[in-house]
């Protein structure tokens, strides 16, 4: 099924019932020895490992949470570029996204209460190749920046509640 067919099928389903646009995701996490965490994506039966490098007390069996956050942003950008290019009829031969982020460990370890524990700066670099004009790719970038769900998480405050049981 092509992306335009996916987009149109989704549009028809949402037009028929707006509740069809609401989706929920759920992920379980279990700590293993050290800082290794086994993650299970519910419903779709996927799993992966998260860990820290040895310098941060881990066993370095996998990427750490902030690396996965950057990976989530970059992969969401790639996917959103694909969808919006298909939706707008803009040809793309290749997409490469690089995401870099700077984090100050003063915040994570509580060495300084004036330093946030999260990224202080994140930079996204997108390389598009294809026959369309630079102007069309700039328009596409604006559409992607407006509609990328993970970019929205990075740019805007999102309500989060934590419950200890």
TrEMBL record:
Keywords noted in UniProt: Oxidoreductase, Peroxidase
Presence of keyword Acetylation: no
Protein EC: 1.11.1.-
Record's keyword annotation contains Transmembrane: no
Range of residues in the leader sequence: none
GO molecular-function terms, A-Z: peroxidase activity
Alphabetical list of Pfam families matching this protein: OsmC
PANTHER family: HYDROPEROXIDE REDUCTASE
Name of this protein: OsmC family protein
Organism, scientific name: Amycolatopsis melonis
């Amino acid at each position: 099924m092509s992306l335009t067919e996916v987009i149109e099928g989704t549009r028809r389903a949402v037009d028929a019932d707006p509740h069809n646009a609401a989706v929920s995701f759920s992920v379980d996490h279990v700590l293993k020895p050290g800082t290794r965490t086994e993650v299970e994506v519910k419903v779709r039966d996927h799993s992966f490992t998260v860990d820290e490098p040895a310098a941060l007390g881990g066993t370095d069996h996998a990427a750490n949470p902030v690396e996965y956050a950057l990976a989530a942003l970059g992969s969401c950008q790639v996917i959103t570029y694909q969808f919006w290019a298909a939706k707008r009829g803009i040809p793309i031969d290749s997409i490469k996204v690089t995401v870099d982020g700077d984090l100050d460990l003063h915040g994570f370890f509580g060495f300084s209460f004036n330093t946030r524990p999260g990224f202080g700066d994140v930079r996204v670099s997108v390389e598009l190749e294809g026959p369309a004009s630079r102007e069309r790719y700039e328009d596409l970038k604006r559409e992607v920046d407006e509609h990328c769900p993970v970019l929205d998480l990075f740019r805007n405050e999102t309500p989060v509640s934590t419950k200890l049981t």
